[in-house]
Specification:
single chain; about 575 residues; mainly alpha; Sodium/glucose cotransporter; two-stranded antiparallel sheet; 24 helices; 2 strands; globular; Sodium:Solute_Symporter; Na/solute_symporter; membrane; Na/solute_symporter_VC_2705; transmembrane transporter activity
Length: about 575
């Protein structure tokens, strides 16, 4: 069988498996729809959290970003993994002890205000919409190459699959589907990395091959000879300030992501929340320690395969022709010397390789078996679809539970709440599909924008809500609005050429920081405004201050199974 047949077979089998799991775990009550009935075992929640968190950005885009950014690409590894540790240690157990359904639910009750709940719900929708745009683009890329459809049809197919899981099964269906998707995506990633590692270095363990072989110095030397930026030298693509700010934005944003935080509401107790955080960290580390090695192997292989070839020689390679048809790989002999040369500037480079196709194309570039190519396509889809499902549910919960039920219709019955929740997911899928077809950047970049919004809006409100009993509703609302509006406006101005269609960005940076790191300024503003406003207005009621102290005390944690 050829590559396309293997891909159709493997993707078809995995999708049928996901649909079967989703059907088995369909729900008819709101507790199952929002928090899976709080009955998910710790290890299963760890796998689901890893799949939810390791989106298309981690699977499809991260190794590509590292391959083209070199040493500076480490910001994504440090930011995303560091942020998860921050979330697991500082926030998850306390939020689980509070025992609510969603992040806006926590903020609304902690700050004794439906206005604060509504502001947090709006922030959740903005963050999730930005994030899901990256996932939909990843889905479109996979389908456009391996199912031989255009990117619009690829996004539409992905929308239909996600809608089935999320609308029918809610959090319960999504959770068990994500457990299966983690298995598929990590298997696909590791098989590719092990095979190409053994092929290039003779060592099948990617991490050891990267550390003890000379593959990275060889790649560095090739880049120098071609006039590209040094692969192993720091600050070639980002300034020191941007490395610091992007890493911080990703860390703080990870700790404020609503679709990841609500996963800790699905386990039976606080102890299970801690255990599932540990399992998730282990599952995430497997992929994140492999990604830098895969990035080096993939970049080395691409340069060895394409650089210096004639256009005719390059187009005699099957995978080159197929990726060219998608428009994500472009070959052009610009200087007319008959040879293709890759440079760091797209204006002069004769090989333009979309960074988002590095992982997906690696099995073909390395001439691995066709079934491996199909498995990687299934892994990329699993990563993107699992995260998209979680994001859609977070948006649905923010509107149907926090705005419709808690503010607009407190007397709504179970059937009405489920109906609104499912209708919200349908509308959110349509919007996500639009952004999937018209993304404002590479998958990893778009996801980084979402992290910046989360860092600037929800993270300060959550951390202050747990550790500062003097923080009141006036301070929290003012802080969330300040951080969210500032960061959103800065991202639009710095990326106005792609978002507003201007000829050049209205701003190149803000105080030297680019769009991916500007969320840190938003977070700093949020903390300052929250603190100042809270100290100028009345303190929270006594029972709220006692509640904040109680959240941080370990004793009685087991009682968290009871609803507040």
């Amino acid at each position: 069988m050829n590559t396309e047949s293997w891909t159709l077979l493997i993707v078809g089998i995995t999708f049928a498996f996901y649909l079967y799991i989703g059907y088995l775990n369909r729900v008819r009550e709101t507790a199952g729809f929002y928090v899976a009935g709080r009955g998910v075992p710790a290890i299963a929640n760890g796998a689901a959290t890893a799949a939810d968190w390791m989106s298309g950005a981690s699977f499809v885009s991260m190794a590509g970003l590292i391959a083209f950014l070199g040493y500076d690409g480490a910001v994504y590894l440090m930011g995303w993994t560091g942020g998860y540790v921050l979330l697991a240690l500082l926030l998850a157990p306390y939020l689980r002890k509070y025992g609510k359904y969603t992040v806006p639910d926590f903020i609304g009750d902690r700050y004794y205000s439906n206005r604060a709940r509504a502001v947090a719900a709006v922030a959740t929708v903005f963050i999730s919409l930005t994030y899901v745009a990256g996932q939909m683009r990843a889905v479109g890329i996979v389908f456009s190459r391996f199912l031989q459809v255009d990117i619009i049809m690829g996004v539409v197919i992905g929308m239909a699959i996600v809608a089935f899981f999320a609308i029918l099964g809610g959090m319960k269906g999504i959770t068990w589907t994500q457990v299966a998707q983690y298995g598929v995506l990590i298997l696909a990633y590791l098989i590719t990395a092990v095979a190409i590692s053994a092929r290039l270095t003779g060592n099948p363990i990617p991490q050891l091959a990267l550390t003890f072989s000379d593959i990275a110095p060889r790649l560095n030397q090739i880049q120098i000879e071609l006039g590209l930026k040094e692969y192993l030298a720091p600050f070639q693509n980002f300034s020191q300030l941007n490395v610091l700010f992007i890493t911080l934005a990703l860390m703080l944003g990870t700790a404020g992501l609503p679709h990841v935080i609500i996963r800790f509401y699905t386990v039976p107790s606080v102890a299970d929340a801690r255990k599932s955080a540990g399992w998730a960290l282990l599952f995430i580390a497997i992929l994140y320690t492999t990604a830098p090695a895969l990035a080096v192997f993939a970049k080395y292989n691409i340069l060895e395969t394409l650089n210096g070839k004639t256009v005719q020689e390059a187009r005699s390679i099957d995978w080159v022709v197929k990726w060219e048809e998608t428009g994500l790989l472009k070959l052009e002999d610009k200087d007319g010397d008959g040879r293709l040369v890759m440079t760091s500037d797209n204006a002069t480079s004769e090989i333009i390789f979309d960074r988002d196709i590095i992982v997906l194309s690696t099995p073909e570039v390395a001439e691995l078996a066709p079934w491996v190519v199909g498995l990687v396509a299934a892994g990329g889809l699993a990563a993107a679809l699992s995260t998209a499902s979680g994001l859609l549910l977070a948006m649905s919960s923010a509107f149907s539970h926090d705005i419709y039920y808690r503010i607009l219709r407190p007397d709504a019955d179970e059937r009405q709440r489920l109906l609104v929740g499912r209708a919200t997911i349908f509308v959110a899928i349509l919007i996500a599909g639009y952004f999937g077809v018209n993304p404002p950047g590479f998958v990893g970049e778009v996801v980084a924008f979402a992290f910046g919004l989360a860092a600037a809006s929800l993270f300060p409100a959550i951390i202050l809500g747990i550790f500062d009993k003097r923080m009141n509703r006036e301070g929290a609302i003012a802080g969330i609005l300040t951080g969210l509006v500032f960061t959103l406006v800065m991202i639009i101005l710095i990326r106005s050429d792609r978002l507003l269609g201007t000829e050049a960005p209205i701003l190149n940076s803000f105080l030297g920081v680019n769009a991916q790191g500007v969320g840190v300024y938003g977070a700093i503003l949020n903390f300052i405004v929250s603190y100042v406003v809270s100290r100028m207005t009345p303190p929270p009621p006594e029972h709220i201050q006692h509640l904040v102290e109680d959240i941080r005390v370990p004793r009685g944690a087991g009682a968290a199974v009871a609803e507040h």
